[in-house]
Amino acid sequence: MSAETNRSPLIQTPDRWLLLITFLLIGIGVLMIYSSTAVVTPLLAKKKVTSFFYFKRHFFTMFLGLIVMFTFYRLRPDILRKIALPLLVFSFLLLVLVIIPGIGVSAGGARRWIRLWPSTFQPSELVKLSMVIFLAKYISMPYYRTDSFLSFIKPIVVMAVFQVIFLKQPDFGAAMSLGILTLCMLFLSGVRLRYLMSLTLLALPVLAKLVMEPYRWKRMTSFLDPWKDPQGSGFQLVQSFIAMGSGGLTGVGLGESKQKLSFLPESHTDFIFSLIGEELGFVGAMLVVLLFLSLFIKGISITNRSKDTFTYYLSFGLSMMIALQALINFSVATGMVPTKGLPLPFISYGGSSLLVNMAAIGILLNLSRGEESRKVVDKTQEIIVRKKAKRAVYGNRI
Question: Can you give the pTM of this predicted structure?
Fold first, then answer.
């Protein structure tokens, strides 16, 4: 049997199930975005917004997302390893641009976007992707030691710098998700638990001070009892409950939502899962949950097949990044955690989230091919062949 025949099983095609799940989620997003924005309110009509306004913009972003996904799919892991630090610095510079007048864009009392033609971009989404790639490189470096406090504290400092800027915007949801993502990757690397516990204890006073901010405290109290102020601070969560409760088992029907008629705020972005629950019912909502669960499982299966430490941590981090944001969005819509302002990956309207998550899928599809594993095996086979050749020449004297 030739060497090429022996090697062929290691050269795999991209994970088709991962690609199918992604396209199904994007397809559901297209349907629900059109459903939630097709009805034009009088206020939007004055701004000359048509029923296809958001749909066309989302479709354009989806086209860009496919290009981004293919671009990252073509990047080899060694290239990602090389650009890890430059990409992190670039995302930091974009994040700083948010606070510059004329470049940064404010909406809803927050300044989180920069103005880019033809729309806006939210750098915090790119920060999460950059941090995952950076951490995967850092943890896989030979000098990284799980029993060294210095090795542990370096990525924590990097994370804290980004979180400070997030909180200035303010974007508490992005700061929280970045913190959880960083700690999960460090935990996976085998860092000592006492380091993680010490950091948690030190962070508690800071977290308490952040929560005591008037508007955050108001969110906290309305989350605990939204019916106490159903027309004020608890309005969004109450409307989310009404939407999901109205859907029942099979929903009221696609396009038949009543809550999207100016009752449920952000029905096409942060609370699109509530709209799914209303129009498609419990069945539709559970389908979305199962699709995200399947996507996470496929990502972890890629992690388990990795023979290189960089690709191992990279695939885990990317899978965790998508799953964590989806879990937080589900929790917000169902009232399990306070409102965070995080979109539902692949489904919510929002170009920044879609582009970054498509880039993550492109990387995962590349890693699913097993190219890095093939290189490791080829290198091992090359060493064995050299040893056999030396024995043939010099005998057992080597």
Answer: 0.86
